[in-house]
Write a structure and sequence with these properties.
With 431 residues, this protein is of the alpha+beta class. It is 35% helix and 24% strand. It folds into three domains: 106 residues, OB fold (Dihydrolipoamide Acetyltransferase, E2P); 56 residues, Dihydrolipoamide Transferase; 218 residues, Chloramphenicol acetyltransferase-like domain (Chloramphenicol Acetyltransferase, 2-Layer Sandwich). It has ten helices and 19 strands. Helix 8 crosses helix 9 and helix 8 crosses helix 10. The protein is globular.
């Protein structure tokens, strides 16, 4: 008999700990290799840890609700195999690798913290700020631009406590003068929502709270603008219908419209790289990789966004495999944390529920998100050499929400137009 320590594995980039949500087995239970043992939660995703081999769970070392570091032992498994020297070396090597990952992550976080503190200690013009002044500025929501306008009376022009308090008093008086007489503080704040008799109160679960916080943060961060365009995808629909059975037979995969949308979007992002960006203060980061997230509804009603890394480097078959695999594992709670991170652009499919269109919220820190509506048969005007005719066509609406700080309507319109062009003239050489 050999005892095998089950450790919390590496959970993705930047993740050094996880919460034990629920044990799926109890001590004394017999398990087979790859059977789910425990459900863990990070700030990115809930996932299951499988059994590394068949055997009996002889000890559970951490209770539900506990926070565990990556590399720590969470349970002990007993199997009928004797661990040889090579296997022991492999285990030791894996543990050492995890420890190195943790140390590297901690060092990166430490360096980021130091850099952040150094940045906060000075204004944009280089004016030094003491810890006390920084504390007051943070509490009173005083930005760097305002701090730069304060004339410091301290040594070398430094801002003192009296300087910033005098600025606050002056700002308050100015605000009072500019405040309309009819506007009151009670009018500024929304009335709290209260339950009435017979109402059901449902507490948000952890994932829903994370989604809610992320959505509110996004709306506060980015001035959202949404543009719309319709696309005649008759040619695309007819082509897909003609090859889907053959594709399933040869590739063992269903061919939906989603990988085609992703393929067209990836090509459009190559043509318009200033859509594939994020914002860092006053800097724009143009992403080298095109990593497309696809919003996926979960059985519990929550939403998750698995990411297809380097989508522009995959052909249609590769994209179909990635879409089907990620969607299936997302609904089965089998995603790894690093499979929902690193996205540079997101697609959400309103058409799944036969919705015509929508105004999606940007998935921060990205700068844009594409919504795809339902494909419907519609009467449309077709231009022919003999004049205009009305025909039944497959029409869909595309919507693009974008961060108006860095993406203007002209660029958004060109990008949407490019996706429309690619879909309307779609062709593939897979067969």
């Amino acid at each position: 008999m050999a005892k095998l320590n089950i450790i919390l594995p590496a959970m993705g980039e930047g993740v050094i700990e996880a919460t034990i949500n629920k044990w799926l087995v109890s001590a004394g239970a017999d398990v087979k290799e790859d059977d789910p043992l425990v459900e863990v939660a990070t700030d990115k995703v809930d996932s299951e840890i499988p059994a590394p081999s068949s055997g009996k769970v002889i000890e559970i070392k951490v209770s539900e609700g506990s926070v565990v570091k990556v590399g720590e032992i969470i349970a002990v498994l007993e199997n009928n195999e004797e661990a040889g020297p090579e296997e022991e070396k492999l285990v030791e090597k894996e543990v050492e690798r995890i420890r190195e990952t943790i140390n590297e992550t901690r060092q990166e976080l430490k360096e980021e913290k130091i850099a952040s503190e150094e940045m906060k200690s000075r204004t944009r013009s280089g004016k030094f700020l003491s810890p006390l002044v920084r504390s007051i500025a943070a509490r009173e929501n005083i930005g760097y631009d305002e701090l730069d306008r304060i004339s410091g009376t301290g040594m070398d022009g430094r801002i003192t406590k009296d300087d910033i308090l005098a600025f606050l008093e002056s700002r308050s008086k100015k605000a009072q003068r500019e405040l309309p007489a009819e506007k009151t503080e009670t009018q500024e704040k929304p009335a709290p929502s209260k339950a009435s008799e017979g109402d059901e109160i449902i507490e948000m679960d952890r994932v829903r709270r994370l989604i809610a916080d992320h959505m509110v943060m996004s709306k506060r961060t980015s001035p959202h603008v949404t543009s719309f365009i319709d696309a005649d995808v008759t040619r695309l629909v007819n082509w897909r219908n003609s090859v889907k059975d053959k594709f399933l037979a040869s590739e063992g995969q269903k061919l939906t419209l989603t990988p085609i949308f992703i393929e067209a979007t990836a090509r459009a992002l190559q043509d318009y790289p200033m859509i594939n960006i994020s914002v860092d203060g006053t800097n724009i980061i143009r992403r080298r990789n095109i990593n497309i997230g696809m919003a996926t509804a979960l059985p519990d009603g929550n939403l998750i966004v698995p990411v297809i890394k380097n989508a522009n480097e995959k052909n249609l078959t590769g994209l179909a495999r990635a879409v089907n695999d990620l969607a299936a594992r997302a609904r089965g709670n089998k995603l790894k944390p690093d499979e929902i991170t690193g996205g540079t652009f997101t697609i959400t499919n309103f058409g799944t529920y036969n919705n015509l269109s929508g105004t999606p919220i940007i998935n921060q820190p990205q700068a844009a998100i594409l919504g795809t509506g339902a494909v419907r048969k519609m009467p449309a005007v077709i231009e022919t050499p003999d004049g205009d005719v009305i025909a039944i066509r497959h029409i869909m609406i595309l919507s693009l929400s974008y961060d108006h700080r860095v993406i203007d309507g002209a660029l958004a319109g060109k990008f949407l137009g490019r996706i429309k062009e690619l879909l309307e003239n779609y062709s593939s050489d897979i067969f």
